Amino acid sequence: MPREPSSGSSNLVAPQPTRRRVAAVVLGVLACATWLSDFPQPAPLACVEPPGDTRVAVRVHCGEASDCAAAQALAIDVWSEHQGPGLPLDLVVYERDVPTLEAAGLRPEVLVSDIDAVARAEAQRLALPEIQKPSDWFGEFRDFGAISTHLGQLAALHPERATLVAVGSSIEGRPLWALRIGGQHPGSTPMLVNGAQHAREWIAAMVTTCVADRLVRDYETVPAIREFVDRTELWVIPVVNPDGYQYSWSSNRYWRKNRRGSHGVDLNRNFSVAWGGSGSSKEKRSEIYRGEYAFSEPETIALRDLARREHIALHIDFHSYGQLVLYPWNHTPAPAKERGRFTAVGDRIASAIYAAHKTSYSLKSGAQLYPAAGTMSDWMYGEADALSFTIELRPKGGSGFVLPPEQIRPTCDEGLAAVLELRAALD
Ligand code: 0X9
Ligand code: ZN
After folding, report:
1. Could you tell me if the CB of 332 is within 6 A of ligand 1?
2. pLDDT tens figures, 63-118
3. Would you kindly state where each structural domain of the chain is located, as residue ranges?
4. Considering 392, 406, 414, 421, which one is annotated as catalytic?
5. Cα separation of 119 and 20, whole Å?
6. Which of 401, 418, 261, 259 lies closest to 322 in space, CA to CA?
7. Which of helix, strand or coil describes residue 423?
8. Alpha-carbon distance 79 to 118, whole Å?
């Protein structure tokens, strides 16, 4: 959800909490009274959405900048990483506005015909008792409590190579858990991997937890992992925005920001490199609200302080979606001084990802897609001197932020391949 829905004026209105009035009477018997249940409770059976209020994710094909602006004017939310003339753009609009997009020649393709129905179905699945089966932990998405417990179990299992550390705490007082892996040997390379700056990008939290799990458990059996752990001091923070993440589980599946006030701050616009620049907003209601000042949020402060204290040299910030390997700069199309290095290493990362499951991730500089000022990756590179990438995980488009749980393991293989390859590329 990268930028304002319409170019000039408006602020992106945060996705509506899923409170719906129900206007259906089914079989002439069941009158649906006003349904005010908070998401993720499923709608009462036999109730339907009020006509016209259904929120649809569409991909539109903008020929010219003006077309994109017209499409964005109708958007309630922008999901796309790809933006700009000639590129497909993923938007959320009300169903009633789809004909307007068609009339404008934007050829809207429906990606998700009812994003709230998809979220309700997911919540229903997650409420099933069999989901709690610990035997298949990565067979399902997990909330912040479960992820925290899992990280603690990994540290307890192999205290000689994994330690659980709280590197800060969130606005609502949740610990920012980091699993520190390796670092036993002098000269180990300090590396940071984090996920879920954006609350709704659940796959990023699962993939980072899974990468930590694989590194800790497979040390004895997988030579590449042993080699990595022996030469690296890796800090894995699967959920850097735990308040937003929990809110996306309890109240609004499509929440993006942290939980500052009632509006939230986009953590990935709150870092100090180019803070306040284009591709960020000063409006609190915007999905890309940058906060009052750079590092106004405890979550970004904790990441900054950790990176400085540990002299982090390598970094991956996992997001979703789009299947992209992005390198700095994110805020300006001007090439980074080390652009050649970024493209060489990024190419290796994309190839390593492809080797896992033949899934293509495209390599680009962030600003080639759209400008984003105040990002973590630009700060990690510009101020902390780290070789830093943003990786947008699966899917390429399709279902957007809500993925089938069967996608967790293969996407984890891709995340692990990226982490190992970035480290290997330093040699
Ligand atoms: O906008 C963001 O913060 C990131 N994309 S997301 O869809 N996960 O929100 C990407 C930031 C870097 N990318 C660009 N500069 N385009
Ligand atoms: Zn993101």
Report:
1. no
2. 776 777 888 889 999 998 776 667 788 999 999 999 999 988 888 999 999 999 99
3. 19-113, 135-425
4. 392
5. 14
6. 401
7. helix
8. 15
Of the candidates 241, 302, 248, the one whose C-alpha atom is nearest the C-alpha of residue 266 is 241
The long-range contacts involving 49-52, CB below 8 angstroms and separated by at least 24 positions, are 49/20, 49/114, 49/116, 49/117, 50/20, 50/21, 50/22, 50/23, 52/94, 52/95, 52/96
pLDDT digits (tens, 9 = 90+) for 351-397: 999 999 999 999 999 999 889 999 999 999 999 999 999 999 999 98
Is 172 designated active site?
A: no
pTM of whole model > 0.85?
A: yes
CATH of domain 19-113: 3.30.70
Q: Tell whether ligand 1 has an atom less than 6 A from the beta carbon of residue 319.
A: yes
Ligand with an atom nearest the CA of residue 268: 1
What's the gap in Å between 2 CA and the centre of ligand 1?
A: 5
Closest by Cα among 329, 347, 330, 326 to 338: 329
217, amino acid identity: R
Which tokens belong to 301? 């402060």
The pLDDT of residue 18 is above 50: no
CB-ligand 1 contact for 330 (6 Å cutoff): yes
H or E element, residue 212: helix 202-217
Cα distance from N-terminal residue to C-terminal residue, the chain: 35
Q: Does 47 sit in the ligand 1 pocket, CB within 6 Å?
A: no
Nearest protein CA to atom 13 of ligand 1, as residue: 366
Task: Map residue 79 onto helix, strand or coil.
Answer: coil
Could you tell me which CATH number the domain at 135-425 has?
3.40.630.10
For residue range 289-327, list pLDDT tens digits in order: 999 999 999 999 999 999 999 999 999 999 999 999 999
- Ligand number, closest to the Cα atom of 323: 1
